[in-house]
Design brief:
The complex is a heterodimer of chains A (229) and B (377). Chain A has eight helices and two strands, in the order βααααααααβ. Chain A is mainly alpha-helical.
Chain lengths: 229, 377
């Protein structure tokens, strides 16, 4: 094809394993589904035009069901990713990022790159310092929303898993000062996640446009390309 | 095991029966005077037994416990409160058995009910503390102001602070029961900004306190806790916030008569609309039943006649800690919750949208600048 030409020499390799990519997309889809259903549960904005005196169309219960299904999908993805980060062999270069994260010089250069006045720094791990701390906060929010979510879940479903989690739910309830506050914090954690996701998407697109190394493709194909220097 | 338990309860009741009662009438006579038959009384006892988690065969034992309730000395303190809890029990036009038993208990000291006044009342109080030391049940109505040494509440001719009086009385009590939301969690006095530093009594006592919250709590929950104490000689098993499990184990929402409509997504949109006429769920007009632990949806009020949700207004969560702040506004769902604190939905939505907008503007600007002047490679 005419527009193809030799672009120097590239180094390639698997950046994200299959499991990694799956959990990322399960998590991503879950977040969008959970935000949409969550807003409905907080204030049911869709109601039937012709009310019937007998409750037969269980819309709220259905939407809650989807909220719970996606909630547990997200919990699975978050747990997988947490274990992956700490224990998986493939996560070696993710763990390397911890060392970069405390490198202030590197962080400053990263900020200068975003301010368009310096080159992108070379990092040892796969995340730059700003990215690493943003993701760390994201996981604080994830665990916040999971803990409050499970506490709310256990109060609705008293048997099975809910029953097993009940003492835990009660402890969470005491910690937050009542179930109303558990719910409010669940809502606040949602907003924190929305904001991180919003910026994350911009950064991903930005890197795809200006990085010119197929960086965005890695989350689909797993392949990372870097120019040899 | 059931027999052993019944035997134990009977023994306790026999012991109590030996103590002098204060009333010159038996409960039987009191009930008869008020037109309540033995049959009604036993029905009540059966219902209370079941409420307390006992088999219905325990009804006679519960009835006996109620009969000896005038032997158990009770001291009732009023701290920072409105007396609504007492009033709701005593101001009924047709007193229920709960009300009558409440009047029948050996009430040694109760600001509102006692005949004595002034120095005489003070003397009765000191006398009761001495005479029944280590034996009486202390019921407390109202939160306790703690700021500036508790001087926002002083009681009696010596201007003793509520804090001191509470500590002094509780030290001699056999058991402490917090009646109402104020004494359990601080209540409205403790609402933001809480100028008097009011807290629930358990915060200043180092004794176990049984919380019977509600604004007011139902008569059944108060009398049930006292009868439980008579039957078992111990305080009931409690949940994480020290509320008796038999009364506060489930949410209002769990046993609500309108729950089907909640799951169906059928909501009252505004008071008086078609949904309200059909008895739809009150969630969207502010029902806080999903966050509130109480047995109103099962026990109701006024001799099991009705309760707020049945009457068409949502639960306001009055038996939850911090309800004045946490549950407001009462006629709107928590999603519309606006308050000074950041942990409020509407505030969170506003802050969230603002940050999101700012981030969006910043992103557009950054992208635009980057397009003109690409980043260094």
């Amino acid at each position: 094809m005419k527009f193809l030409k030799i672009m120097g020499e590239y180094l390639g390799g698997i950046e994200f394993s299959a499991g990694y990519r799956w959990q990322h997309w399960i998590r991503a889809i879950s977040i969008f589904a959970l935000v949409a259903t969550g807003f409905y549960l907080a204030n049911p904005f869709i109601t039937f035009a012709n009310p019937s005196p007998t409750p037969t169309r269980f819309l709220h219960a259905e939407i809650r069901e989807w909220h719970i299904i996606f909630g547990f999908a997200m919990i699975g993805a978050v747990l997988y990713k947490t274990i992956y980060f700490f224990f998986f062999k493939e996560a070696k270069y993710e763990r390397e990022s911890i060392k970069d994260a405390f490198n202030i010089k590197l962080a400053i250069q990263q900020i200068m790159y975003y301010m368009l006045i310096a080159k992108h720094p070379h990092t040892r791990g796969i995340y730059n310092p700003l990215q690493f701390w943003a993701y760390t906060m994201l996981y604080v929010f994830f665990y916040g929303i999971i803990i409050t979510g499970l506490a709310l879940y256990a109060e609705v479903y008293h048997a099975g898993l809910g029953g097993m989690l009940y003492p835990f739910a009660k402890a969470v309830e005491s910690f937050f000062g009542g179930l109303a506050y558990v719910r409010l914090w669940h809502h606040i954690f949602m907003w924190a996640i929305i904001i991180v996701v919003f910026i994350h998407i911009y950064m991903a697109v930005y890197n795809a446009v200006f990085g010119k190394n197929g960086g965005m493709d890695a989350i689909f194909s797993g392949m990372k390309w870097e120019k040899e220097e | 095991m059931k027999d052993a338990l019944m035997e134990k309860m009977r023994k306790r009741i026999e012991e109590l029966r030996k103590l002098p009662g204060v009333s010159n009438k038996s409960i039987k006579e009191v009930l008869e005077e008020n037109g309540i038959s033995r049959r009604d009384f036993l029905k009540w006892a059966g219902a209370l037994a079941v409420t307390l988690g006992l088999p219905a065969s325990f009804a006679p034992v519960v009835a006996e416990a109620a009969e000896v309730s005038d032997r158990l000395p009770v001291v009732w303190l009023h701290l920072a409160e409105c007396t609504g809890c007492s009033e709701s029990l005593i101001r009924t036009d047709a007193p229920s058995i709960d009300d009558l038993i409440f009047n029948y208990i050996n009430l040694q000291y109760h600001d509102t009910l006692m005949a004595a006044a002034g120095w005489q009342a003070e003397e009765n109080y000191e006398e009761a503390l001495k005479k029944f030391a280590g034996r009486f049940i202390l019921c407390v109505e109202g939160g306790v102001p703690t700021k500036d040494g508790g001087e926002y509440l002083t009681i009696g001719p010596e201007a003793e602070t509520g804090l001191e009086k509470l500590k002094r009385t509780a030290a001699k009590a056999a058991a402490v029961i917090a009646v109402g939301t104020c004494s359990s969690f601080g209540g409205i006095q403790a609402a933001y900004p809480n100028p008097t530093g009011t807290v629930g009594i358990s915060k200043v006592l180092n004794k176990p306190v049984i919380n019977v919250p509600g604004c007011p709590p139902s008569a059944k929950n108060i009398v049930g806790t006292i009868v439980y104490r008579i039957l078992y000689g111990a305080l009931p098993p409690v949940d994480n916030l020290n509320r008796p499990k038999w009364a506060y184990g489930l949410r209002i929402h769990d046993l609500c008569e309108r729950r089907g409509h909640f799951d169906a997504g059928e909501f009252v949109e505004e008071f008086g609309d078609a949904g309200a006429m059909n008895g739809f769920c009150l969630y969207k007009v502010g029902c806080k039943g999903p966050y509130t632990f109480n047995n109103c949806s099962r026990e109701r009020f006024n001799q099991h006649t009705s309760w707020p949700v049945q009457a068409g207004h949502g639960c306001i969560g009055c038996s939850e800690p911090d309800f004045w702040d946490a549950m407001a506004p009462y006629e709107e769902p928590l999603a519309d919750h606006k308050f000074m604190s950041v942990n409020a939905d509407a505030t969170a939505d506003k802050v969230g949208v603002t940050i999101l907008t700012l981030a969006g503007v910043a992103i557009v600007a950054h992208a635009a600048i980057s397009a003109i002047k690409p980043p260094k490679e």
